């Protein structure tokens, strides 16, 4: 093997090493802090209608991840004008409306500094499924998903098998206790961001409900971010395959930094895009003002 090929092999192995993984993770953490600081300094979240359209984006991407075919424009029109798109299943419109209502509820609770409880996440799930929920008949009794009732049966998704339903109540209680303990401490910006991502991963891995677990887990993440006055993170619809793979790899390797790294990349990409669009708008406004002054 030539020296060049040997060197290339070494570099390739280095880039796949644990050291590189944590170096990349450290870089992503620094990027998030930088983007959040600039996002707030520019006052992007204070821009007229920015909050509404950010919420619409959260709902759009989250529902598309779950199968909705509504475009971003159709989602915006549905939420702001209550007009459903023609030729598309009503269930998708109901999914969007319910998700938006659940998001508003979560953000109001965050503003009130309400604690995360089992009742809170059950209410989130009930709101997510308000118009599309099913009633499940099991040997252990009926489960009405519209009431945020925990599953009474075992479930799987592809090759992934979620915890036995008998363990769900205690696993959920443990997760809530962990979130409460961490939120009661003095957290750095990094701690707050990681807590929101960790809660997202842990909740969807318990999969406590028959339906709506993904949407509820992302709303729980957004609740924690809103609690700490952070921009709301979005899992972009185009990142669905990478999102699922990050969840699978994190479980397989029992390494939360895998999911954190994925979410940091999503978060940094979203913030970078919003900052660039805001600065472009500012430059255009300054250009127009200069032109009018001639």
Automatic annotation (TrEMBL):
<dbReference type="Pfam" id="PF02661">
    <property type="entry name" value="Fic"/>
</dbReference>
<dbReference type="InterPro" id="IPR003812">
    <property type="entry name" value="Fido"/>
</dbReference>
<feature type="site" description="Important for autoinhibition of adenylyltransferase activity">
    <location>
        <position position="66"/>
    </location>
</feature>
<dbReference type="InterPro" id="IPR040198">
    <property type="entry name" value="Fido_containing"/>
</dbReference>
<keyword id="KW-0067">ATP-binding</keyword>
<dbReference type="GO" id="GO:0005524">
    <property type="term" value="F:ATP binding"/>
</dbReference>
<protein>
    <submittedName>
        <fullName>Fic/DOC family protein</fullName>
    </submittedName>
</protein>
<dbReference type="InterPro" id="IPR036597">
    <property type="entry name" value="Fido-like_dom_sf"/>
</dbReference>
<feature type="binding site">
    <location>
        <begin position="211"/>
        <end position="218"/>
    </location>
    <ligand>
        <name>ATP</name>
    </ligand>
</feature>
<feature type="domain" description="Fido">
    <location>
        <begin position="116"/>
        <end position="265"/>
    </location>
</feature>
<keyword id="KW-0547">Nucleotide-binding</keyword>
């Amino acid at each position: 093997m030539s020296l060049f090929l040997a060197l290339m092999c070494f570099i390739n192995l280095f880039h796949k090493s644990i050291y590189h993984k944590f170096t990349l993770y450290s870089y992503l953490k620094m990027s998030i802090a930088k983007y959040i600081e600039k996002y707030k300094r520019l006052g992007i979240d204070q821009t007229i209608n920015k909050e509404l359209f950010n919420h619409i984006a959260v709902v759009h991407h989250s529902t598309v991840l779950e199968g909705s075919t509504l475009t971003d424009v159709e989602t915006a029109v549905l939420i702001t004008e209550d007009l459903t798109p023609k030729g598309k299943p009503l269930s998708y419109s109901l999914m969007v409306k319910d998700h938006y209502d659940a998001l508003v509820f979560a953000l109001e609770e965050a503003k009130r500094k309400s604690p995360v409880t089992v009742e809170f996440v059950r209410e989130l799930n009930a709101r997510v499924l308000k118009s599309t929920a099913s009633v499940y008949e099991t040997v252990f009794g009926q489960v009405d998903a519209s009431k945020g009732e925990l599953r009474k049966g075992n479930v799987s998704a592809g090759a992934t098998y979620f915890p036995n339903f008998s363990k769900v109540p205690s696993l959920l209680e443990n997760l809530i206790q962990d979130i409460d303990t961490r939120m009661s401490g003095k957290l750095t910006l990094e701690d707050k961001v990681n807590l929101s991502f960790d809660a997202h991963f842990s909740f969807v891995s318990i999969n406590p409900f028959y339906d709506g677990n993904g949407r509820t887990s992302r709303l729980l993440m957004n609740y924690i971010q809103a609690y700490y006055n952070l921009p709301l993170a979005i899992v972009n619809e185009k990142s669905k395959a990478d999102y699922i793979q990050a969840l699978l790899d994190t479980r397989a390797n029992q390494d939360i930094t895998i999911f954190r790294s994925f979410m940091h990349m999503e978060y940094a990409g979203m913030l970078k895009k919003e900052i660039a669009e805001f600065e472009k708008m500012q430059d255009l406004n300054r250009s127009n003002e200069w032109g009018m002054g001639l």
